[in-house]
Amino acid sequence: MNHSHSTPPATNPVAGDPVTGRPAPRAGISARRVVLRGSVPIDGIDYVAAAAGDSPYAPGTVLTPGTLLAKPQPAWMFPPLSPEPDIPLNYTVIARHRRFMVVDKPHFLPTSSNGRLVRNTVQTRLRVAEDNPNIVPLHRLDRLTAGLVMCSTDPATRRDYHELFARRAVTKTYQARLVRPLPQLDTTFTELVLPMVKQPGSRQVTVQDTAQATLTTTRLRLISRDDPTLVEMQPVTGFTHQLRVVCHHLGAPIIGDDTYPIDKGLNLADFTHPLQLLAATMAFTDPLDGHKYCFATLQSLQSAAS
Length: 306
Hints:
This is RNA pseudouridylate synthase. By secondary structure, this protein is mainly β.
């Protein structure tokens, strides 16, 4: 069969966003945007035209395999999924609102796809369980960190809640269990400003006072003098591994940290040593109705004697 068409084939648009052409998620997994050149690949993958000002294809048009392309064509596709380790842990729903949800994420479950894990994420599992392909996490929470994650359920209001996080208008507190006490801490908050740099090709972030550094601000304190390795932290800024780097920099890494002080490598199938870091509370004023919300995790960290 000859698939070498040079004119747009008469195919029906697929269900999805009529403006961008992006198809609706399949099994909770979002389509990926690519740019096709030369011809539409004959590889068993469905390619759908993405919006482009000079494209001969309407957004959402299914592109016939082998079609010759006169110019680069943006497209959406669902790439084949690689095998993933099963993650025998799941989230708990804390709150359902008509515009958002708050869930309590376990250690080891990513918030959204990190490239290696696609099916086993909060986003994918929530979309399937709630039968809502529009669920999108509004902020990041590391795979190894447990605790609260807020997700948008309504595309029409998603930007309003995204901006809450962008403006740092959400107050988040974390708890961490450290490998040793920090004698410089008390039960009142101390504010620490550190310049951090993400090292290229490394999972580690370092504290370096260089032109490339980003200034980070963290507030931290002891929760109780009777438990000197349990600290509460409030990130004023948001930087990769910020809280983990702060604790390591002060001389007391978080228990279970596989990256600080030594990068032990990535093992997505190892669930034996959870990072003792917990997103414990989240508070904000709803940007649309002015209601004040405060949510708290149902989880707790291991005791000092564990």
